[in-house]
């Protein structure tokens, strides 16, 4: 099997990104199935390695992804050599370095110099600039790779996969975005991703309500009757196995979620609070709906842990595994769906 060229962006240099990257790549078995290329700074990597007292690891310094050594963990410098690390602090310099690494990795991904992208956590405030006016990675990649049908933030752990209709918008505006068309579109993206990216033949999708108790038949709000239920019915008309709407509290409070291949929540915290509560250290964020493959650990910069050696690499490690699995699943889907047999009417065969 081909070794997958995996680009990893260093995220915020003052957080735990380098710690979890180094800890993940310390396991030499990673090199059995992928070629890691970190987009960041050899100087910053050395700083973190020293702060963490990690002596049994080093990066192979390269200038281009084309030079990557398949038997080493590689790193490309994307920032100014005089960059300053201030552990645990949000700085403009850290924000700029986050963007520069992401920009170069995205360019290499577009030019097929790497196969998949794993993004280290950024600070959504300090990365803001004229070049990055986005709420996060998801929105940046959606704009960069011109997704026609939109994208879906899909969180995955060992218990379930959950996508959200709305992502980084104020709670006060959520109901404005809960429409039949937006829900149906997310269901289409989710269903297609489960089929192609995760190899699930006939995925079953649970849809959550927006209001408490899924509105109790219109007593507490009417979004379920006006938007969510019609979207579910329309999805079924398109052979998508969507069910609901389910009250979010009871759904996660029981084992009901185990009956489905994925869940569609209406807004960010409705989906991510139960997800993170049940993820321990191994959650992964996947951007479904893109032509490219991007995953990331399901945690933030964790400034409070920076430089202490206490950060767990499980989430980043699983993000790497998932990116590679999705790449292989897409290649398999291309192979099995190429040159399909044409349907012939029985009369044509007589």
Written overview of the protein:
- This protein has helices at 17-25, 42-51, 92-110, 137-144, 174-177, 180-196, 223-237, 248-253, 268-277, 314-337, 346-349; strands at 4-9, 34-40, 60-62, 74-77, 116-119, 152-156, 161-164, 204-208, 241-246, 262-265, 284-288, 294-297.
- The chain has 350 residues and is of the alpha/beta class.
- It has a domain at 1-148 and 287-312: Isopropylmalate Dehydrogenase, CATH 3.40.718.10.
- A twelve-stranded mixed beta sheet has the order 3-4-2-1-5-12-11-6-7-10-8-9, sandwiched between helices.
- A hairpin with a 5-residue loop joins strand 11 (284-288) and strand 12 (294-297).
- Helix 6 crosses helix 7.
- The longest helix has 24 residues, at 314-337.
- The termini are far apart.
CATH topology name of the domain at 1-148 and 287-312: Isopropylmalate Dehydrogenase
Oligomeric state of the chains?
Answer: single chain
Cα shape: globular
Helix content: 25-40%
Give the SSE order as H and E letters. EHEHEEHEHEEHHEHEHEHEEHH
Largest sheet: number of strands, sense, barrel closure: 12 strands, mixed
Number of strands: 12
Radius of gyration: 21 Å
Provide the β-strand percentage band: 15-25%
Label the CATH architecture of the domain at 1-148 and 287-312: 3-Layer(aba) Sandwich
Structural class: alpha/beta
Unreliable segments (pLDDT under 50, ≥5 consecutive)?
none
The name of the CATH superfamily of the domain at 1-148 and 287-312 reads Isopropylmalate Dehydrogenase
């Amino acid at each position: 099997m081909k070794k997958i060229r995996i680009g990893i962006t260093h995220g915020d240099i003052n957080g735990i990104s380098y710690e979890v990257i180094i800890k993940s790549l310390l396991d030499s078995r990673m090199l059995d199935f992928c070629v890691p290329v970190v987009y960041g700074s050899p100087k910053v990597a050395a700083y973190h390695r020293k702060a963490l007292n990690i002596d049994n690891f080093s990066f192979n310094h390269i200038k281009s992804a084309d030079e990557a050594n398949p038997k080493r963990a590689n790193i490309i410098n994307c920032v100014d050599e005089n960059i300053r690390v201030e552990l645990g602090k949000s700085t403009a310099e850290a924000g700029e370095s986050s963007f520069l690494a992401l920009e170069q990795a995205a360019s290499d991904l577009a030019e097929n110099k790497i196969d998949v992208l794993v993004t280290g956590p950024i600070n959504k405030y300090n990365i803001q600039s004229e070049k990055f006016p986005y709420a996060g990675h998801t929105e940046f990649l959606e704009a960069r790779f011109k997704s026609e049908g939109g994208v879906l933030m899909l969180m995955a752990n060992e218990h379930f996969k959950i996508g959200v209709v709305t992502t980084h918008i104020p709670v006060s505006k959520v109901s404005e975005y809960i429409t039949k068309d937006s829900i149906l579109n997310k269901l289409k993206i989710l269903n297609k991703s489960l089929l192609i990216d995760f190899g699930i033949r006939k995925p079953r999708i649970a849809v959550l309500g927006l209001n408490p108790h899924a509105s109790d038949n219109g007593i507490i709000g009417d979004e379920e009757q006006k938007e969510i239920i019609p979207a579910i019915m329309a999805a079924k008309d398109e052979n998508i196995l969507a069910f609901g709407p389910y009250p979010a509290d009871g759904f996660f409070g029981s084992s009901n979620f185990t009956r489905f291949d994925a869940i569609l929540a209406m807004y960010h915290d409705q989906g991510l609070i139960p997800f993170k509560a049940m993820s321990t250290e191994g959650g992964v964020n996947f951007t479904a709906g893109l032509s490219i493959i991007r995953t990331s650990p399901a945690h933030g910069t964790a400034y409070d842990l920076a430089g202490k050696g206490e950060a767990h690499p499980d989430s980043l490690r699983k993000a790497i595994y998932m990116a590679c699995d999705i790449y292989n699943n897409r290649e398999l889907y291309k192979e099995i769906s190429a040159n399909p047999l044409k349907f012939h009417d029985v009369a044509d065969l007589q």
